[in-house]
Amino acid sequence: MTIQFFKNANIYTPVDKGNPAAGKNQGVLDHFENGALLVEDGIIIFAGNIGNIADNTEIMKKLESVDNTIDCFGQCMIPGFVDPHTHMCFADLRESEFEMRLQGTPYLEILKQGGGILSSVESVANTSEDALYFNTLKHVLSALKFGTTTLEIKSGYGLDEQNELKMLKVIDHVSRTTPLDIVATFLGAHAIPKIYKDDPDAFISLVADKMLPAVKAQGIATYCDVFCESSVFSIQQSKKVLEAALKLGFKVKIHADEVNDLGGAGLAAELCASSADHLLAASDQNIEKMASAGVVATLLPATAYSLRKPYARARFMIEKSLPVALATDCNPGSSYCESMPFVFGLAVLNMGMTPSESLTAATLNGAYAIGMASKVGSLEKGKQADFLLLEGNSPAILAYHAGVSPVTSVFKFGEQVA
Fold first, then answer.
1. In terms of domains, do 121 and 142 share one?
2. Same domain (yes/no): 61, 139
3. Could you list the residue range(s) of the whole structural domain that residue 409 is in?
4. Per residue, what are the HEC states of the chain?
5. pLDDT score for 242
6. Domain count across the chain
7. How much is the average pLDDT of 36-62?
8. 0.85 exceeded by pTM
């Protein structure tokens, strides 16, 4: 048994009340100006103002057995970031497509021409498992330096059983060889493979009837996702995949209404998905349906930034009591970004979110979006001691100090890992 005592910390944390924080509650934080964190075997047993410890007999006894006392010297302490939407498992970059977009070629047009996701599919197929592992590891460790301690990684650059399973195996390998908690998502329906371009329904049947059972037997993926969008998969095709996944015991999420208001947000509400992600074009009605169904809205402002599109309507969503999470969408095409501080800054400066709302979105609500809130997302008794120390006096430093990371130290289970 190891007991660590972190003192002189300026702690800001969301409060977990058993559900994602929504509406006015999204901006509510606990603040302990003279804060302390007592950690036993990596788990928090006390978080609060140091002056409250004297009234707690159990904690006072634990203090007698402290192995290490760490002085935080008044630095701001926040929970480790939870990034609930990434595509970090890929082989090659797509800089040439970035230049095409700068010249005005739409993202979906690039996909129609065989680029975009299909380009990454080809490179993954031609890359060994070991090479794919080291490339994924590089991105995950970069995210860790920026303060991400828990994240999700999707497959989806395979589009056939062999390569989807290869990607999930790589994600699992990275999970077991890094300090982070990593949640794997199967995204077999990420694009229409070239050989199925004239019969996408046949591919959807392959995903639902063959690939999903194989992924279930492999036992790595927790979630199933689908790219529901014009020129990709329709509402009915997406529903077929997600309903098949639910029957097999997967949790589900959906890429919804990124470019067009196809109704993916409404489908997420209908299926009570864990999250609907992107939502740049989601309608008022479907946003309200998501709120009623308890679906988390995972917003990806770095993608809107990269694609030079209007941002998702975070302010409206919060006003409608829809819980908002933030994620990087790290991928080789539309958002090559591992930095949650950058995403935080975009949310504050370009989406109208307050620093307090953004902190909740980047931690607790992100944890709910990937089923990890019982373990991470807030600094509270019983949760993992995953936290960051910042150079500033409050979480606002993440948006205020633009273009850099104000994260000075990263802790996982109470141990410094970056």
1. yes
2. no
3. 3-79+378-416
4. CCEEEEEEEEEEEECCCCCCCCHHHHHCEEEEEEEEEEEECCEEEEEEEHHHHHHCHHHHHHHCCCCEEEECCCCEEEECEEECCCCCCCCCCCHHHHHHHHCCCCHHHHHHCCCCHHHHHHHHHCCCHHHHHHHHHHHHHHHHHCCEEEEEEECCCCCCHHHHHHHHHHHHHHHHHCCCEEEEEEEEECCCCHHHCCCHHHHHHHHHHHHHHHHHHHCCCCEEEEEECCCCECHHHHHHHHHHHHHCCCEEEEEECCCCCCCHHHHHHHCCCCEEEECCCCCHHHHHHHHHHCCEEEECHHHHHHHCCCCCCHHHHHHCCCCEEECCCCCCCCCCCCCHHHHHHHHHHHCCCCHHHHHHHHCHHHHHHCCCCCCCCCCCCCCECCEEEECCCCCCHHHHCCCCCCEEEEEECCEECC
5. 98
6. 2
7. 94
8. yes
